[in-house]
Design goal:
Elements (H helix, E strand, L loop, with lengths): L1 E10 L3 H11 L9 E3 L2 E5 L6 H8 L6 E8 L8 H5 L5 H4 L7 E3 L2 E4 L9 H11 L5 E5 L12 E6 L4 E6 L2 E6 L10 H10 L5 E4 L6 H9 L4 E6 L2 H13 L6 E5 L2 H8 L6 E4 L9 H7 L5 E10 L4 H14 L4 E14 L2 E10 L1
């Protein structure tokens, strides 16, 4: 079956970046087959991009053209790694296959159970086959650890790289997953916090990483200042690049160093809002967040882990005690909820606290 639809017309050498852009915006028509003619590539779209979306596309590729073209429907393809592996793995091991994976740009990150270690190359190839927009399959080779929150990866299929361009909420991010921590699973949370920011605010992002909270806030607000701190020099360099990529470098001030030292040195009583996305250790920096809030007060977004039998109520009590010890007071808990499950009986939780 063939049909004529809107498409992106780009040079073949720009095809990968064009796909990343279109996929990130959610406008690729994945039921249709990409067409090639001479040195050109035609990428089918679900609809015509908006003017703002075209700006995002232009940030990644030069001179994309909007056109219409006749496309053929894709033939049936195996849609999951399990389907692709059904004839390769013993039946009793199929239930051990990873149920979920993180996709960052065109990189898929999987966790291979010990029982499937000898099949990891086949799992990698099957994952590539099931996810047509993925070019790299990395297997987790250790836990997140150290002050930079990094983990080791093993390439099990695809291109030998750990860098990619990731699209989220209208922003583009250059990310090296081996050198800076990043989780795509906080997309909705970043959008939620951004929606709460008011024009004219000064925000301090204590553990900013490659900048997903900071950059989204700057992109969506005309009159804000965001001080984005991180102790990892690689993350800060990627954040600077991402600020330029999203044209918000005039609103973001990336700072390399330990959050406690930076706040004590130059950012006392400046913030209307503080973001504390370091769930394992944020409780050690509550006094720092209190010190950077304006004397009139402000809002803190505190992230932590709750592990059974502990509860959110316990986290609230500990947080309020830490704020009191810092000489300030929680006058309202605006939000207290689970953000995501991180392990069996373990959740990442956010507290939005109004503090004076």
């Amino acid at each position: 079956m063939q049909q004529e639809v809107n498409c992106l017309k780009v040079a073949k050498k720009q095809g990968e970046k064009a796909l990343i852009a279109a996929n990130g915006l959610g406008i690729t028509n994945k039921a249709l087959q990409i067409q090639k003619e001479d040195d050109l590539l035609f990428i089918p779209l679900l609809r015509k991009p908006t003017e703002e979306e075209m700006k995002d596309i232009l940030a990644l590729i030069p001179e994309p053209q909007l056109a219409t073209h006749v496309f053929s429907s894709k033939k049936y393809q195996e849609t999951t790694a399990a389907e692709a592996l059904r004839n390769l793995l013993p039946e009793h091991l199929l239930s051990k296959l990873p149920r979920a994976l993180d996709i960052v740009g065109d990189i898929a990150i999987v966790e291979i159970p010990q029982e499937l270690e000898q099949y990891k190359a086949a799992i990698g190839q099957a994952t590539l086959k099931a996810h047509k927009n993925v070019r790299v399959i990395l297997a987790k080779a250790g836990k997140v650890s150290g002050p930079y929150r990094l983990r080791d990866f093993e390439l099990i299929a695809g291109e030998p790289r750990t860098t990619t361009i990731y699209k989220e909420n209208g922003c583009s991010y250059y990310i090296d997953v081996a050198k800076a921590y990043f989780s795509p699973r906080l997309s909705h949370e970043r959008e939620r916090v951004t929606s709460l920011v008011q024009e004219g605010e000064t925000i301090v992002d204590l553990f900013a990483g490659v900048g997903p909270f900071s950059i989204l806030i700057a992109k969506n607000h005309e009159n804000v200042r965001v001080f984005a701190l991180d102790i990892n020099s690689e993350a800060v360099e990627q954040m600077k690049r991402n600020a330029r990529l999203n044209r918000v470098e005039n609103k973001i001030f990336p700072i390399l160093g330990d959050a406690r030292k930076i706040i004590n040195g130059k950012l006392v009583y400046v913030a209307d809002r503080v973001i504390m996305n370091l769930p394992e250790n944020a409780h050690k920096f509550v006094d720092v967040a209190c010190k950077t809030l304006k004397t009139s007060g402000g809002v803190v977004h505190f992230y932590g882990f709750v592990r059974s039998p502990d509860t959110i109520e316990n986290m609230k009590s500990h947080f309020e005690e830490d704020v009191n010890k810092a000489g300030r007071k929680v006058i309202a808990l605006l939000e207290a909820k689970s953000v995501r499950e991180t392990a069996p009986h373990e959740y990442q939780v956010v507290l939005d606290a109004k503090i004076i």
